[in-house]
Amino acid sequence: PALMEGSADGRAWGLQTLGIARNADGLIIVVDLSQDPVKQLSLILGEMGRARISTSKPRSRVEIERKYMGVGLRIIVLGRLVDCTFGEVERLLKGYNVTDAFVKIYGEATLNDVEEAIFETMVYKPTIIAANKIDVDGAEGNLKLLRAYVGNKLPVIAVSAVAGAGLEKLGETLFSTLQIMRVYTKEPNEKEYSKKPFILKKGSTIYDLAKSIHSDFKQNFNFARVWSKRLMFSPQKAGATFRLEDGDIVEIHLK
Description:
By secondary structure, this protein is of the alpha/beta class.
């Protein structure tokens, strides 16, 4: 859906479009190389910024999954806490009545980062730019201007929707930008694993995989066996907090 000046104020169904962007896994911003791509991109990023949608990768990511009463608060630090302690994070969460939840902290996180995650004020969306109409006159010059403006902040893929040029790069770039991985599953007592992978965020754990399979799996999880090229031996018995990598094979055992 298109964005224009005033979209963040509700012009031309802009709030609906920005709402879709907030809930998306990632974004592709399409600009027209037959016109001024820098002006187009600046306008789009400006409207997204007003809607508290960021395309700049933050130093940290804090995920809060609220659970049912009685589970308690479980905090998993997969990165590093900056200028705060584990106890201060725990007190902050409980101060906002986050008492039954799984909280995962990636990267270098401050107390402000944790607080922002509680209220979900700013959301980060992995983004690539599809610079369309690379096949028209003057497009190469505009592409250079666009890349100079963007720098190394976002990947820019030059494409032609008509000729099909560059479209083959979109899938690979999306896979890399979205920071996702493929994890395969195997049923106990079966020799072969499923060739259809689950797609998870990099840094995900066996608990995340179990949650993706079925709600019963996460509640009745006992242990898992993992086959992976990085392990000294496979399979290896692992718990719920074991971090997975692309290509891992997991066999989940329930209670």
